[in-house]
Amino acid sequence: MTVTAAGALPATPYDVAVVGAGVVGCAIARELARHPRLRIALIEAQDDVGQGTSKANTAILHTGFDATPGTLEARLVHEGHTLLGAYAARTGIPVERTGALLVAWDAEQLAALPRLAEKAARNGCHDTGLLGPEELYAREPHLGPGALGALHVPGESVVCPWTTTLAYATQAVRAGADLHLNTAVREAGWDGGHRLTTSRGTLYARHLVNAAGLHADTLDRALGHDDFTVTPRRGQLLVYDKFARSLVRHILLPVPTALGKGVLVAPTVYGNVLLGPTAEDLDDKHATGSTADGLAALREKGRRVLPALVEEEVTAVYAGLRAATGHEDYRITAHPGQAYVTVGGIRSTGLTASMAIAAHVTGLLAGTGLDLGPVREPEPVTVPNLGEAFPRPYQRADLIAADPEYGTLVCHCERVSRGEIRDALASTIPPRGLEGLRRRTRARAGRCQGFYCGAAVRELFERGTGS
Amino acid sequence: MTAARHVDVLVVGAGPAGLAAAARLAAAGAGRVEVLERETAPGGVPRHCAHGGFGTWTRPLTGPRYARLLTEAAERAGATLRTGVTALDWASGHAVLGTVGPGGPETVAARAVVLATGARERPRAARLVPGTRPAGVYTTGELQQAVHLYGQHIGTRAVVAGAEDVSYAAAGTLRAAGAEVVALVTEDPRARTGRARAQAARLYRGIPLLTSATITELLGRGRLSGVRVRHRDGRTTVLPCDTVVFTGDFVPDHELARRGGLVLDPGTRGPATDGAWHTSRPGVFAAGSLLHAVEPARTAALEGARAARAVLDHLAGAPWPGPGVPVLVSAPLRRITPNRVTPGTPPEHHLLRTGAPLSRPVLYVRQDGRLLHRARLGPGAAVPHRALTLTARWHDRVDPGGGPVRVSTG
Ligand SMILES: Cc1cc2nc3c(=O)[nH]c(=O)nc-3n(C[C@H](O)[C@H](O)[C@H](O)COP(=O)(O)OP(=O)(O)OC[C@H]3O[C@@H](n4cnc5c(N)ncnc54)[C@H](O)[C@@H]3O)c2cc1C
Description:
The complex is a heterodimer of chains A (467) and B (410). Chain A is of the alpha/beta class and 467 residues long. Helix content of chain A is 30%, strand content 23%.
């Protein structure tokens, strides 16, 4: 088990280097780690896995019902939905099968619903159904007035993006992959093998996977390809207090327009309600700030869909950047001559598709001459349950009886125990900051945002890491 | 679920309100009085307010000293304090709570429950302050605990959002932690604190006060690098800083109250209560900052003690009052407590807060257009940072079958 965050990188070449430890890169590393003969490096510029788009999205396990039929994305989202759904059940990643409702607010949108149902069927999603206003309001009693009907997509679900990424990375590392954090790739060179110049020295690899998310185009160009340009498309989101959770039962989607999927209202597995995202094309790949205009626009939309929502307190505000490329599909390309696979343009469906992308990319790598060798299923992992629909440690008398630390609550709003914080600090991929600890435990993520627990959590973190 | 353990009175929250109630109840022979506190030590918010300003005029105390005195009084009277125990939710029955602590989950049934769960400051997100999400963003509560309970490093240059008493306390804590206070920033035209306090900060400590100014954006990656401020004339400036503290703007910690389906008051967002601190749920009382975030600790303690009297009556078999008549306020008044009138339970007085300073205020109390009471307050009495008191002498004029009572300034 090797996770490094400082110091020199190993000098011996790896069989495969995966650049980018987002949900896609981690899934690829995990898939490759099923082949015990391979030496794998997972390289990440930031100090934790899942710090890019993977941590700040809408956390939906998509069916792919609205994908463009026939695209690679449509296929991988459809497969990924099944794969991740099953993996989550084995691993303890919380998934709530809420279903989605595409709500029509005018006659034109209502008229579009049957066509969307047909499209869904072409994407392998055969269980959708049209609802009239009466049934819609029976299912969603707090919906704002004026809705005319909806398309019900039962398979759409909500999932925890943080523990998904963490589970993949943990399993990869435990199966022998090396995770190198704080390792930004500055230059890439190919002369029969890959030579990556990084912020921590040079790393050699026979095969390379570019899963660098927003920066995949830059790395691709460094290797001589000019196939696509990533435009960061910012999505701002509001997370409402847990008291809002009872207001909504399904993922509430607008009927898609030419401008994109639009603003949704969705439950989160943590028991909150999400409102967002905005869609703003920017040119700064670091522009993850929220804006007054963005938040005002969201509240305006939210008020229409779920009027009672905006009366509740906001628990968090965040913004994520999706990797738009101007193409209506993923940009996954094998370059056999270079023993290189580009995994670019994984837009807003990468979380769902991650496992299917990993399987696809592994196949492409084999096509670039990688001898995968035998398969050995990695040891199963269990991630901490952050979901409210499943028993959390503080609710488990058996756990607390065996270890009272699970009954000692530190973060009151989110009911995080000292035992969970201790476990996170001792885990295979420990957090390197309070934000990382939050994504593993939810400590400091609640309505008080640290008023009560912030100092105590920081104390435990600093004591536990000696920082 | 485990079989319920029975106590006579269960108090949730060992802050000034809960401790004062428990002390009074235990001393009066209410039987087994138990206080649950989720923190590791009793005392509530004063525990980490290392500054003075607690106690009485004749006996000024620091927060921790005040917390200790209240704790000792409750223990001496015979109340049981259980720290590290969180009341999670209601179990079936009028006054049955599910709890968890290091000993595991438990169900506790009581003949009466007193909710004294306090209040918290709205954090940056709840105030919808846009920008990046850097480290170095605090509320006063977190700041005070970090500095006074854990001795943590804060930062070097800090901006304080707000200019009320608690904001000045935050500025003091920042200075104690070795940080320079760059400015206090408030949207109001003047500080919401006593003139002496505002002047001391400005003149003797050199802390600028920016009035009619709004923090519109947080800047910085990883660590805060500054806050953007918009002035009333539309000009914006950036104040470079590595720390910002969002102060004041308190909300009641009403999770248990809401989970229990208690009727809340629209002005306070805490449970609505009558003059004897009965909530809408039989057997459940409420006191302290939970009712009105935030008044001085002494007010919370007095309410706790008064609630104890009503709890004793309840234990002796007094019937639970009906919902009664709500008491509402009109702007610029913001809230009033108690905010229900039920027969036979007049409070000693009502407390009100105004949102804007009023020069020669007259308070009118009306029901269905009928004037019940009129009170002229002294000049300069009505400022947003201090509670106004209103007599309850008009209670016997309220028609129990009538509409809501409304308190206004015109
Ligand atoms: C920064 C700051 C400065 C202040 N300065 C002054 C001052 O100088 N002078 C002054 O008079 N007042 C001051 N105050 C106000 C004073 O602290 C409050 O009036 C007082 O603390 C209110 O008492 P309380 O008992 O209602 O609430 P709290 O003191 O907030 O106590 C509530 C307690 O309930 C516990 N609790 C909540 N939910 C649960 C649960 N589910 N299970 C178990 N326990 C629970 C909490 O942990 C907490 O300990 C200040 C407040 C702040 C925040």
